[in-house]
Write a structure and sequence with these properties.
The chain is 46% helix and 14% strand. By secondary structure, the protein is α/β, with parallel strands linked by helices. The protein has a domain of 163 residues: Rossmann fold.
Length: 287
């Protein structure tokens, strides 16, 4: 087996994939954007290479000698172009197999903007002729940590998704699935897999769970798209990122995010993380 490159190695999904591969003593390279994080990633025992999507030469250097690639493109206004830069460089470098972490419902004609962008990158993987496996995860549980400061201050969860349910997934479970797909192309080559948590919850249920683990009352008030955007802006989130986050909320509010799969159990051999267990692990964030 040739070398595996993990992009986004300091993120929730890429970091989990990296840890899972290193636990199996896999020869893996961690691609890191921030030089300040190199030493902490090197502690996993992986080779570390700097990768700056805005610098095509940096991307090409990171891919030297790589056979299998985990292609996680960061949420950024240039992500569609960056995805193309990464994939064309991978083709030039002789990469044979690409695993993607995309988005549930991703398609060039998706009903929400981020899905269109992710779907465009997924499509380019196929057009360029790679062997591939695409994972399309549900909304990450980790997204709720962005609302922790507001919950601490007000006790109100304002996510604008109405009464619709979502099959939230722990990003670390997705990373574990990525590792399995990378290790076993003979099994997962050519597959597109929806990755969800074990249950679909609406935000009234989420608020009740957060109340239970934090020991304080947290209520869901439905939220308003515009007000949510203003809150995310107040937290320093860039404008483009806010539009993408709100597109995810609209997608959920329109009822597209509630179906369930057994993908985590199938790929990893263990059950997917429940939201209550995730919330309890991060109880301090809500208290």
């Amino acid at each position: 087996m040739g070398k595996i490159l993990i992009t986004g190695a300091t993120g929730n999904v890429g970091g989990a994939a990296l840890r899972a591969l290193r636990e199996k003593d896999t020869d893996v390279i961690a691609a890191v954007h921030d030089p300040a994080k190199v030493e902490s990633v090197r502690g996993t025992g992986a080779e570390v290479r700097l990768l700056d999507y805005a610098d095509p030469d940096s991307v090409a250097r990171a891919l030297e000698g790589v056979d299998r690639l985990f292609a996680m493109v960061p949420l950024h206004e240039d992500m569609r172009r960056w995805g193309s830069v990464l994939l064309h460089a991978a083709k030039e470098a002789g990469v044979s197999y690409v695993v993607r972490s995309s988005s549930m419902g991703a398609d060039a004609n998706a009903h929400y903007q981020l899905g269109k962008i992710q779907g465009g990158i997924d499509g380019e993987v196929e057009v360029l002729g790679f062997d591939f496996a695409v994972l399309r995860p549900a909304t990450f549980m980790q997204n709720y940590l962005a609302y922790a400061p507001l919950l601490k201050r007000t006790g109100v969860l304002p996510v604008p998704e109405g009464k619709q349910a979502t099959s939230f997934v722990d990003a670390r479970d997705v990373g574990a699935c990525v590792a399995q797909a990378l290790l076993h192309p003979e099994t997962y080559r050519g597959t597109v897999t929806m990755v969800t948590g074990p249950e679909a919850l609406d935000n009234h249920q989420v608020a009740a769970i957060l109340s239970g683990v934090s020991g304080r009352e947290i209520v869901y008030q439905g939220g308003d798209i515009e007000a949510t955007g203003l809150y995310l802006e107040s937290q320093g989130m860039p404008e483009w990122d806010i539009h993408m986050q709100l597109s995810l909320h609209r997608h959920a509010r329109n009822g597209y995010t509630g179906f369930l799969t057994k993908a985590v159990e199938h790929l990893t051999g263990r059950p997917a993380t429940r939201f209550e267990d995730f919330a309890r692990e991060h109880a301090q964030a809500w208290q």
